[in-house]
């Protein structure tokens, strides 16, 4: 089945939520973005408008950005999610308590037909179902940043998620012209578990003086055709974000995810990667 949901809700219109709203609207869905307050809603609306304008400039839209933009409404209350919403994707900050709360509020606002998804990049999807009446309609849809050009959606299945839920979501991912990988709910899923491990080993190599950052990244970019070396990629994700995920995986999967001293020191110094101008490379 390849189709795009007709009505989509997105809770949290930040970096990821605005991108998720954009790709569903571009594929033909009516989208409602729910933000925390009026100021955040204005910022989210601006992000969606900017994203669509950039897509139009790159020739990625079939019709004008204004027409696509008219498909996206931004509000501040889950009650604004329309009846018959097919899919709600939660993309609020990476805090379990907040996610559990907004998912439960979204479930109360929509009908029994709606699939609920979380865009968490590291938390246990099973635990995020804690406040839901019907966990069978819930799973992880892990989009990547930036959402529009990214080809992957990692579909994360908790034990209670039903086959019908999975099949509907896989059809929608195809409808977005993206590719799904399906993984059982487990720490770090497939992407973070492998990506973070490679990044941590690269940091340990730097600590041991095996090579400098540029050489380590070039080794993987030129030798293994990775589009981006593990240290550059850590800089883009953010060293603080990587450290938080490594700590979580260290606790759940064991010693091989122990964060290296150098990573902790850089985060303590505010060297967070591209967003702060310096991480393992300089970005000024
Ligand atoms: N940034 C990435 O590279 C990336 C990649 C994959 C997944 N993720 C995950 O996506 C989620 C969002 O990340 P982001 O980078 O977009 O964060 P962000 O901080 O840019 O966006 C979060 C948005 O949620 C809004 N929000 C906060 N509380 C809210 C509430 N109660 N109701 C509605 N909206 C609320 C904020 O105003 C903000 O606009 C996180 O779980 C993150 O782990 C991020």
TrEMBL record:
Pfam families: 3HCDH, 3HCDH_N. One of its GO terms (biological process) is fatty acid metabolic process. The keyword Protein biosynthesis does not apply. Keywords: Oxidoreductase. The keyword Secreted does not apply. SUPFAM superfamilies: 6-phosphogluconate dehydrogenase C-terminal domain-like, NAD(P)-binding Rossmann-fold domains. Pathway: Lipid metabolism; butanoate metabolism. Residues 7-185 form the 3-hydroxyacyl-CoA dehydrogenase NAD binding domain. The record marks 142 as: Important for catalytic activity. Belongs to the 3-hydroxyacyl-CoA dehydrogenase family. This is 3-hydroxybutyryl-CoA dehydrogenase. Residues 188-283 form the 3-hydroxyacyl-CoA dehydrogenase C-terminal domain. GO terms for molecular function: NAD+ binding; oxidoreductase activity, acting on the CH-OH group of donors, NAD or NADP as acceptor.
């Amino acid at each position: 089945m390849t189709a795009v949901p007709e009505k989509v809700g997105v809770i949290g219109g930040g970096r990821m939520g605005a991108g998720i709203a954009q790709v569903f609207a571009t594929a033909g869905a009516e989208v409602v973005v729910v933000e925390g307050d009026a100021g955040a809603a204005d910022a989210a609306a601006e992000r969606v408008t900017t994203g669509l304008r950039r897509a139009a400039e790159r020739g990625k839209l079939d019709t004008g950005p204004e027409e696509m933009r008219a498909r996206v409404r931004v509000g501040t209350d889950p009650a604004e999610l329309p009846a018959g919403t097919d899919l709600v994707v939660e993309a609020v900050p990476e805090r379990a308590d907040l996610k559990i709360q907004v998912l439960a509020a979204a479930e109360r606002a929509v009908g029994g037909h709606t699939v609920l998804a979380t865009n968490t990049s590291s938390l246990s999807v099973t635990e995020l179902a804690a406040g839901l009446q019907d966990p069978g309609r819930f799973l992880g849809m892990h989009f990547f940043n930036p959402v529009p050009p990214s080809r992957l959606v990692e579909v994360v299945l908790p034990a209670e998620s039903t086959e019908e839920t999975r099949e509907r979501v896989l059809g929608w991912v195809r409808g977005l012209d993206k590719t799904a990988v399906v993984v059982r709910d487990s720490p770090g899923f497939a992407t973070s578990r492998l990506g973070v491990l490679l990044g941590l080993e690269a940091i340990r190599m730097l600590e041991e003086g095996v090579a400098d950052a540029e050489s380590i990244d070039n080794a993987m970019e030129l030798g293994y055709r990775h589009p981006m070396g593990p240290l550059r990629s850590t800089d883009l994700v953010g060293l603080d974000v990587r450290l938080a995920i490594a700590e979580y995986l260290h606790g759940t999967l064991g010693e091989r995810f122990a964060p290296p001293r150098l990573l902790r020191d850089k985060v303590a110094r505010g060297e967070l990667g591209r967003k702060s101008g310096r991480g393992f490379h300089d970005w000024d």
